[in-house]
Write a structure and sequence with these properties.
The chain has 2 domains: 177 residues, P-loop containing nucleotide triphosphate hydrolases (Rossmann fold, 3-Layer(aba) Sandwich), CATH 3.40.50; 39 residues. The protein has 11 helices and 4 strands; from the N terminus they run ααβαβαααβαβαααα. It has a 4-stranded parallel β-sheet. The radius of gyration is 21 Å and the shape is elongated.
Length: 229
């Protein structure tokens, strides 16, 4: 659960603001495990939904998970993007309907037909923000991961891609030309979270009581030891 008013620093960075304005096609956001990448990805998607109410703007999110790699194939993820874009607008999607009626018996669509339908729907948007969290969990074969990224980038000129992952050297090479924002748990965010826990957690309230000096010492030590995690 995200603590109120935490993570806002990420939305205010120059790089994210430039990406939102359409000045960056791809933004790469590496971070160590536990830095808050998935929480900030969710925060960003909520911000996109609140900022862009027009159905001319497409928004889609993918959360990769190493526990579900078999299901997270490129065709399945492209199908998820297509579904999210269809839910974004209320008008008719002829290409998606044709694809659906050709597979009502539950057979999977041909990947090329799926991509064709997806590209057809992508063209209906002025701009599409596509956010992918934990790219490092997509597949252990780095070649397949790179192919996935290339497929995303080749979907259309109106695609604006934001990627998070662990700081893996190969990904730095893949995104060497893209702006970068390092994701870390900031000292102020950790301190805010601890302050809430001190007042909301009954055990901590019993231990620390109303000793403000002790509370401040606890916060200082935990923030220091957290080291961005």
């Amino acid at each position: 659960m995200r603590e109120d008013d935490t993570g806002d620093w990420f939305l205010k960075t120059t790089e994210v603001q430039q990406w939102l304005a359409g000045n960056h096609k791809t933004l790469y956001c590496p971070g160590i495990p536990g830095a808050g990448k998935t929480v900030l990805t969710s925060l960003l998607l909520n911000h996109l939904e609140a900022t862009f109410s027009s159905d001319e703007i497409g928004i889609a999110g993918i959360f990769c998970d190493y526990k579900d790699q078999d299901a997270q194939s490129i065709p399945n993820l492209f199908g998820s993007i297509l579904q999210q874009l269809i839910e974004r607008r209320n008008d008719c999607y002829e290409s998606a309907k044709i694809l659906y009626h050709g597979h009502v018996e539950g057979t999977p669509p041909n990947p090329s037909k799926l991509v064709k339908a997806l590209k057809s729907e992508l063209n209906r948007f002025m701009r599409i923000y596509l956010v992918v969290d934990a790219l490092d969990e997509f597949h252990p074969d780095i070649r397949k991961t790179q192919l996935f990224v290339e497929n995303l980038q080749n979907l259309g000129a109106n695609i604006y891609l934001l990627i998070t992952s662990r700081p893996i050297p190969h990904f730095y090479r893949i995104f060497e030309d893209a702006p970068r924002v390092e994701i870390r748990a900031t000292r102020s965010d950790i301190s805010r979270f601890i302050s809430t826990q001190i007042t909301a957690n009954l055990m901590l309230k019993r231990i620390l009581g109303d000793d403000v000096d002790l509370q401040n010492r606890v916060k200082a030590v935990v923030v220091e030891k957290a080291q961005g995690m």
